[in-house]
Structure formats: structure tokens, C-alpha cells
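Progress report, Aim 2. The chain analyzed during this reporting quarter is listed below.
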Amino acid sequence: MNRTSDSDASDKDFSGEDSSDEGSSDESSSGGKNRQDEQRRAGLYARVSTGENRQTPETQLFHLREYADRRGFAIAEEYVDKGSGLDSDRPEYQRLLQDARQRVFDVVLVWRYDRFARFTQALISALKEFQALGIGFISHQEQIDTTTPQGEMVFGFMASLAQFESSLISERVKAGIQRAKEEGKHVGRPPIPEDTQAEVQRLYTEEDISINKISERLDISYGTAWNYVQEIKGE
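Predicted C-alpha cells for the chain:
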């Protein structure tokens, strides 16, 4: 009898543990706070374009702060740019990257992908660096979170897609250049004016001026001057 009683008690204890674990798992998957999230520091990034006069970064920041609070993230820093997403030299964007390398935060929060980077390749490049640094990336609107296995999977897919796109573009460019050569078309930069070509030849052959000085005097690139000098030598 005692054994049966002990067994029943053990079964109840085991059932209770399962119920508790399921509750914890549900809370985490629903975007609620958990211990790991509460230890994370977040860097919030917002951007509005110069032409978006009616928009303010505060709209984005409000939702990002709300999300950070819901997840239990401590906000370490906020970064706000006003300008084109095509410009990789945005001051706050660059400051965010520098702070990431200094581990000022553990996760980056953005409103949408295009607020952070306009090109897939630029986005993937930044995410790869974050991944190497152990920093997560969350896009609020797309609901992509690389701190989760699902988010990691999406990131891997995006990286593969970007690589595939890059390879396709490279192949198309090579094919176009080859076709142009076969058709006898000029490939590369247009040639400099004939009088400039003649001046390159005169300066090099008659005045024995260096290629570097020729490029400075005629306001052409060193590479262009060098190419024409090589043609002169081969004559």
C-alpha cells in the first residue's frame, strides 16, 4: 500500500513539473519576458528619409521601446538617422556598428529592414557581422528575430538568396562583356580625347615626365595614363 501511495505521489510531482515547464515555454514563445531576455541590452535604430517631412523617428522609436519593454530588454542606446538608406556612411548607422564591436548592446531592434539597409547585400553583411559578434537582430514589422532558431533559419535563407543573386548578376555582367567584345564594341571607360592622348605621348616621349606627373598635369587617372603609356611603349 505504501508503495502505491508513493508511486501516486511521484506521478503527481512529475505531472506538476511538466505543467510548469509548459507554462514557461508558452510565455517565452508568445514574446513575454524570460530570464535570458531580461539580461539583454538593446540598441534601437530608427531612420527617416530626408523627403519624409511628415514622418518622425519617434513613431518608430515608440514601438521599439514598447517592444523592448515587453521583452524585458534594457535599452542601452538609441540611434537615429535622417537620410537615404542607400548611404552606408550615415553617422548614427556607423556609430551603431562601432558600438556593436564594443559590445555596447546584445541585440539590435529596427522597425523594418529598409529602415536599416535598402539593399539585401548590405543587410546580410551587417547581420553576418552581428552574428560573428554574438549580437541578435530583430525587425519589428517583419517579425524576424535572430535570437530564436526560426530567425536564424530565415537569416540563413536570406544569406543564401543574396549569394545566389550576386552570382547571377556576376554571370550576366561577364556574358554582356563577352558579347560586346565579340561584336567589336568598346568595353570599359570611354577613351580620353585624341588631343589628350597626343599630349600623353608628347609628355612621356619628349619631356620624359613620369606617369604620375602626367596624370596630375592632364587631370586624368593614374591608371588611364599608365594604359596609354603602355600602348606608346608597344608601338
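The first helix runs from residue 2 to 29. Strands lie at 41-48, 74-82, 107-110, 136-139, 144-145. These observations will guide the mutagenesis work planned for the next reporting period.
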